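ok new one. same drill as before - structure tokens go in, u give me an amino acid for every spot. 372 of them this time. try not to just spam alanines like last time pls lmao
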């Protein structure tokens, strides 16, 4: 078991990592359930998959404390992060009579967490919420940090708010039913923490990453706790991303977002897979600038490939050139000029924001990677 504090001034919260904690929800989240003791149902939001797999466990845990859940179930996938679903969710919360001292429970991956977090940010100008993440990606990344959002025609996550959860309960046992591909996609974000800020953790993952992917108890808990501890430190230091600290969490994301856009944000390339390949590209581009050695860049690529994640741009079979990928990056950042901030590496374990990157050079670099 590990408990990590997110030390935000005025609204600190805990992340609890504990096997089986979902089944002990009533005790673990007791302070946030007190308001429901009079017989009101506890609002829970899940997608159809997490509801099917975990609702029974949650209902039983609540029943032990004399409580009952009321479930709002959304379709699995990004389509739940829309104005329409947000409106229905807000109407449902208001019909339940939630108050600003209540807490809503989000059981699922990043989509459910983002949707519920944003609904809670705006309903009654701010209702509390508790994150119960059920994917590795949500457990090590999206359940902590307070960025909440929905997608619109203009792009992903463009309508949202900073709204921190009151508690995050991580049960590594729920990952037993996670498909292997999604486990690997979440693991990309774990590797990201090593690459961006912890060389010893990166080396540990090189040696023990297969145990994490196999969901071996100690290795998995260590990987989640180390990842969340770093995210908690960064978020506490730069909640609104106004310094160059929180931006480090975007390592691999600028390249990765271009790849997601080029593949239509589809199952062809999951977000974590795009981030994995984006980190290889960031490492190789850092080597091209002479900031790390070519050998270190290939060491990063080997760790990513060893996890069964894409580490080779030419292997994606894209029918585009480097300039088209750069155009996606410009569109993502709404930028017209010849440069963009890029997350690059000074070493394996130290990322930084480079503001002198020439996009023509990025396009030429990507042309080389596409035909590697
Ligand atoms: N909710 C994800 C983040 O704040 O980073």
């Amino acid at each position: 078991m590990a408990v990590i504090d997110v030390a935000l001034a005025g609204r600190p919260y805990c992340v609890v990592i504990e096997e089986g904690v979902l089944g002990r929800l009533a005790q673990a989240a007791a302070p946030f359930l007190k308001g429901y003791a009079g017989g009101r149902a506890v609002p829970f939001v899940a997608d159809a998959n997490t509801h099917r797999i975990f609702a029974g466990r949650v209902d039983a845990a609540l029943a032990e404390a004399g409580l009952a859940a009321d479930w709002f179930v959304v379709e699995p996938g990004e389509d739940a992060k829309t104005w329409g679903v947000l409106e229905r969710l807000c109407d449902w919360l208001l019909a339940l009579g939630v108050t600003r001292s209540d807490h809503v429970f989000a059981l699922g991956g990043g989509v459910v967490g983002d949707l519920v977090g944003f609904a809670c940010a705006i309903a009654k100008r701010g209702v509390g919420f508790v994150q119960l993440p059920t994917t590795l990606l949500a457990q090590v990344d999206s359940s902590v940090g307070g960025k909440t959002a929905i997608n619109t025609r203009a792009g992903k996550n463009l309508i949202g708010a900073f709204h921190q959860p009151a508690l995050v309960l991580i049960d590594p046992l729920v990952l037993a039913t996670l498909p292997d591909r999604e486990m690997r996609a979440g693991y990309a974000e774990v590797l990201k923490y090593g690459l961006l800020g912890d060389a010893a953790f990166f080396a540990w993952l090189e040696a023990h990453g297969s145990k994490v992917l196999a969901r071996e108890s100690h290795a998995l808990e260590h990987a989640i706790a180390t990842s969340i501890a770093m995210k908690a430190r960064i978020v506490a230091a730069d909640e609104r991303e106004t310094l160059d600290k929180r931006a480090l969490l975007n390592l691999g994301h600028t390249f990765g977002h271009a790849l997601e856009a080029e593949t239509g944000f589809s199952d062809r390339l999951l977000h974590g897979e795009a981030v994995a390949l984006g980190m290889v590209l960031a490492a190789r581009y850092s080597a091209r600038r002479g900031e790390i050695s070519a050998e270190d860049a290939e060491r990063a690529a080997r760790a990513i490939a060893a996890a069964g994640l894409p580490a080779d741009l030419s292997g994606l079979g894209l029918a585009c050139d480097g300039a088209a990928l750069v155009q996606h990056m410009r569109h993502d950042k709404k930028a017209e000029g010849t440069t963009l901030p890029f997350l690059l590496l000074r070493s394996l374990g130290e990322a930084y924001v480079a503001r002198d990157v020439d996009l023509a050079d990025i396009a030429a670099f990507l042309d080389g990677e596409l035909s590697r």
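Residues 180-370 form a domain with the Dehydroquinate synthase-like, alpha domain fold (CATH 1.20.1090.10). and btw The first helix runs from residue 25 to 28.
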